[in-house]
Fold this sequence. Notes:
The chain is 35% helix and 15% strand. By secondary structure, it is of the alpha/beta class. It folds into 3 domains: 8-62, no CATH class; 68-80 and 351-451, Aspartate Aminotransferase, domain 1 (Alpha-Beta Complex); 82-344, 3-Layer(aba) Sandwich (Aspartate Aminotransferase, domain 2), CATH 3.40.640.10. A 7-stranded mixed β-sheet has the order 2-10-9-8-7-3-4, sandwiched between helices. Helix 4 (82-88) runs antiparallel to helix 10 (335-371). The chain is globular and about 60 Å long.
Amino acid sequence: MPFIPHTPADEQAMLEQVGVDSIAALFAEIPAELRMGDSPALTHGEAMSEMAMLRWMGERAEQDAGLICFAGAGCYDHHVPAAVWDIAGRGEFMTAYTPYQAEASQGTLQLVFEYQSMMCALTAMDASNASVYDGASGLAEAILMAVRKAARKSRSRRVLMAETLHPHYRDAARNIVTNQGVEIETLPMAEGRCDLQRLPGDAPLAAVVVQQPNFFGLLEDVDRLTDWAKGQGATVVGVVNPLTLSVLKPPGQWGESGADIACGDGQPFGAPMSSGGPSFGFICAKAALTRQLPGRIIGQTEDASGRVGYSLTLQAREQHIRRGKATSNICTNQGLLVTAAAVHMALMGAKGLAAAASASRANTLRLVERLTAVKGVRQLFPGPCFHECALALPRPAGEVLDALLDRGILGGVSLTKHFPELGNALLVCATEKRSDNEIDAYAKALNSVIAG
């Protein structure tokens, strides 16, 4: 192992100091069922030169080149203009350090300020952070914001979370906030949407969480839910796909007074799918909650000579303030992804984003029409959807997806794990990148798999 500087003697000395007899003993607490064990592909075979390794990796990368992606569920195959990463990849952005020194970071600070301004315009909110790990941890932070707000009034720590919220968001938020004494309750669904006939009683709520469009791509009655929640004294948290806000009513305008917090994942803006990451989470809020926002906030000001300048403001993170007073002790910044998102939004503009969103929905409608023409396949839930839709299949979804993959198609996401009560159900997605020929190819492949 020429790139590992420690000799066997070094390793033995460190193990003796720690008090164990092997490196494996350091990982003894990991349950056996979670261990991969030795992988022949990694532990055997001849070593490669750098040139041979790059050739080998390139050959395997080409195996994925022909795959057509109809998977979504929170990570989407949108077009990313080439200029996005040409700009974001410049050294000034790619390798820039955290902009704590405003006098040396005006370019980065201005870019983030512009990003925050565009996010506020999209969500109809007053302030935006930049940023948190991802959409799921962003939701957890939004819930904690709401609980801190409730501490000044009702003192409630109850949060009502829609069952139609992305299951990964529900799990991540629950894992983070329940250890802080927050009680999560579920608003059940009916026909793929929040069941408004089963809203809870009059016990105080700290927050109500709803996703628009929801996990199944369906549109919730967010106006009615927002007004009801406000009547209960609850903070309304809207989980949103930022691209959809170019054509849908923004959360800041839901109901009579709007949602209080909007959060989600910024992946549709400039971040390639990359096998699921990295991405970034965003949180926007009304003015009254600005001081509760975790993450960085950039402010615009003037220097002594009247020149416009930018600086970090309201720095209430754990490295800036005593731990007990910090708004978050886990939030971080995905600065490079925020850079890409800002460039993406600026290049596309309002009309470009709306065109991409509208094309995605049109392609999804075309896809659903073609797939439901296959015998035994039907749309699972009635009503309008955005750029993904749940389908019921006559065969197990996992088997169908494996067979489609053999035909060069990523056919969607199985709903069996998180929603077993839905039976053989599949979530499919079509973005603006999908062509008529690709949609036809999926329909023909699905017909062959179902018939075979």
